[in-house]
Amino acid sequence: MAELSSHPDEVKIVSSRFGKGAADIKRYLELDGYKAVEKALLMTPDAIINEVKTSSLRGRGGAGFSTGMKWSFVPKESAKPKYILVNGDESEPGTCKDRPILEHDPHAVIEGVIIAGLAVGAKLGFVYIRGEYRYLVDIMRKAIDDAYAKGFLGKNIFGSGKDFDVRWHTGAGAYEVGEESALMESLEGKRGIPRIRPPFPAVVGLWGGPTVINNVETLASVPHIILMGGQKFADYGPPKNGGTRLFCLSGHINKPGVYELPLGYPLKKMIYDVGGGIPNGRKLKAVVPGGSSTFILNAEEAEQMNMDFDSFGKRGEFLGSGGVVMLDDQTCMVKFALRIMKFYQHESCGWCIPCREGTDWLKKTLTRFHAGGGLMKDIDNIKYLAQGILGRSFCPLGDAAAIPTISIVDKWRSEFEAHLEGRPCPFEKAGVASEVPVIA
Amino acid sequence: MAPISEKLDRFFDEKMKEYPTKRSFLVPMLLYSQDELGCLTDEVIAHLARKTELTELEVSNVISYYSLLRRKPLGKFHVQVCTNVSCMLRGGEELLDHCKDRLGIGHKQVTSDGVFSLEEVECIGACSWAPAVQVNYDFHENLTAAKMDAVLDQYKNSPQQPAKY
């Protein structure tokens, strides 16, 4: 269903089985399937964690935290059972990479869960998939059933004397549940309200037990790391930014698609070579580097960035989720800011005041502003409201709403000024979206 | 008599055993019940409350959090048009307007024959294949107005898909 794309610069590791029918367990076994688990069963937990640390694999959900470190925080001894939880609640605008993984390579995720379980001493893992992805829930259910039938899950897996179970679970529509503590609440059958931290899930997680929560792509990378060795994986990217990543190109780009590229790949090449440039002879105006929660780059910045965590981190910004959205020079940035805020206002769980009230006021102000009812003082007020949320909300959703808004006001202030005094949106007549050719 | 089919009820009983607490499987149970019934009725809320040993109010509180869950029925085919950023940049809003014109209904409304309902939704994870629409759980991607018409025609003439679980 999710159409596949290809480019010669791609390094296919996580996507190596895409389009090869690997959702079928027989085919998966022909493609080195479950060899990583067999190898990991002969390793000590510390050796597995060290291999993942060596790979410098960092969380592919967006936060970019070291996976090996995260696993090492789980206490060795625990009175309560430990759990592995796969975050498949992919909902970050611009991000559509977990979908092809779950569709084309579900067993790689199961393998990742088992290996994570061996590393931290958990015996049960849950794969949580967003409710909208029902066809992927069905694919995962079958993959899990097939793995049980082969003896890869359940009692005494691979005759090792060890037991491991994997269960599937589904959401029912909530962006907020992608936040790890809200995800646990949802899996426990509750509203997805985030929990206060500390304690962190690695110590007190699902039903009070230590819990490792990893993104789908992160866990799908793990079997490859175990088979090829952590160092080899690390060497694909710059130091401390190991391996490859699925980048989802979308928006105003000639060849949108999901491409697996090494971390540190230049954004300029990603846009003009891999993505084939901007359609209709237009120029690039802005890039959302990794989902709508990241600082928005202008064209000049975009052409200098390398796509790894630390290149963004040293600017105080975020690489994000891999959702790279291009905006051409006919896009209204006020409208763009409004659409982003409409989303966060809709998704705010309402639990904490800065996020609930801040996103609502920002949506109202931006709506009035874009319609021509803006005042000069609103421009600073929009930034002030966003800064009022930043760092003050209960969970990262508030920050996610504030960050793009602040960067849009800072970088495209002149576009806000062009909307003042009852003037209609200067871009409205250009027919921003309707002129973009839709790919057949 | 349970308000859901016996088969679905047994399936819930099996799944509930996989979790340490009775309420854990509640969110999927609500979604799968809705797939069978069209919406979450008072009867099914009472039934799931009994199963999970929660109050009906606690179950309702969970329902109101999740955007896919609903208390009122929608059309046989629920057309969900994404207008979030990646879709917006490739014509998602125009596609929504086209659907409104074609179906003669607005956001969260149902056609008079009950066949279609329409909803503007947030990101559905089809960004690289935008603009995209979900009809019930089926994805339709890289759409134009003409392709959208063909999609709607195809549903109009097809029997309702059975609920899957």
Describe the structure.
- The complex is a heterodimer of chains A (440) and B (165).
- In chain A, strand 5 and strand 6 form a beta hairpin.
- Chain A has helices at 25-30, 35-41, 45-54, 67-72, 98-104, 106-120, 134-149, 180-187, 216-228, 230-235, 267-274, 299-302, 309-313, 333-347, 353-373, 376-389, 396-411, 413-417; strands at 83-88, 124-129, 165-170, 211-215, 244-251, 257-262, 265-266, 284-288, 297-298, 306-307, 323-328.
- The two termini of chain A are 15 Å apart.
- Chain A has 3 domains: 25-235, NADH-ubiquinone oxidoreductase 51kDa subunit (Rossmann fold); 244-328, Roll (Ubiquitin-like (UB roll)), CATH 3.10.20.600; 333-430, de novo design (two linked rop proteins).
- Chain A has 440 residues and is α/β, with parallel strands linked by helices.
- In chain A, helix 3 (45-54) packs across helix 6.
- With 165 residues, chain B is an alpha+beta fold.
- Chain B has 2 domains: 6-65, Arc Repressor Mutant, subunit A; 77-156, Glutaredoxin (3-Layer(aba) Sandwich), CATH 3.40.30.
- Chain B has 7 helices and 4 strands, in the order H-H-H-H-E-H-H-E-E-E-H.
- Chain B has a 4-stranded mixed sheet, covered by helices on one side.
- The longest helix of chain B is centred in the N-terminal third of the chain and has 12 residues, at 26-37.
- The two termini of chain B are 20 Å apart.
- Classes of the chains: A alpha/beta (440), B alpha+beta (165).
